[in-house]
Amino acid sequence: MRAANAGLAFVLTLALSVVCAGCASEAPKNAAEELLARSIAFHDPGRVWGERTIELRWTGSNPDGEERLQFDFVMAPGRDAFEMQGHYKGTRIEYQLEGDQVSVTVDGEAEIDQETRDNLVLDREDGRFWRNYFGYLAALPMNLAAPGTHLDATPIATEFRGQDVQSLRVTYDAEVGTDTWTFYFRTETAELVGCRFTKADPSKPGEYIAFDGLVEAGGLRLPKRRSWYMNDDDRHLGDDTLSRLAVRE
Fold first, then answer.
1. In 10 A of CB 4, how many CB atoms?
2. What's the whole-model pTM score?
3. Which of 60, 64, 192, 197 has the highest Cβ tally under 10 A?
4. How far apart are CA 57 and CA 215, in angstroms?
5. Domains along the chain?
6. Residue 167 to residues 79, 151, 185, 191, 196: CA-CA distances in angstroms?
7. CA distance 102 to 92
8. For residue 177, which of 14, 18, 12 has the smallest C-alpha distance?
């Protein structure tokens, strides 16, 4: 998990962490939209994302397997309703976003010095960095139907880590994000098995994520393990594991 190193350089001012029912249910217009619709039908057949409150436990580890973070999330419908509590780099964080109000405590203290705020990325994106970061990753592939997202019209048959896949190139409106993404879907089922992002600056090679396994609950099938690698040398950066998933009634 690469949050502190800004591996995902997103502003995410649009509702990428939430998919409206209309976005997910519109009839596909081309092969890319058809592939995405199939993938959403695989991962969210009950169309609960963005409609129900989702609870997650997210654990991140270093390449050597040492735990780096563990957070419990509550993602309510609406992009400005988010709760997070757990630890990151040995520090206890409790974070809540409700409308325009961001509330944070660090090790139980609400008064947080600037060095700590910088180290824990608390001020970035008007305090919404943690919601945007985890909201984006957790909502894949459903959020690829959100406004501000642009799919290349035609998927490409290729391979990703030895699997036959359909790849789909995705860009975003400039105010949302400047990275270019490629998503990889298992050919037979349209399950999302990986993604890759590259940057306009050629000196920054970007990264890719390989997904493995599924966690199923309440009509959702989300990737269980996300393994991060560098694009240029395949260096392993760490893993994120989704160890708990619940959908509230």
1. 14
2. 0.90
3. 192
4. 11
5. 3-247 (2.50.20)
6. 28, 11, 6, 12, 10
7. 17
8. 12
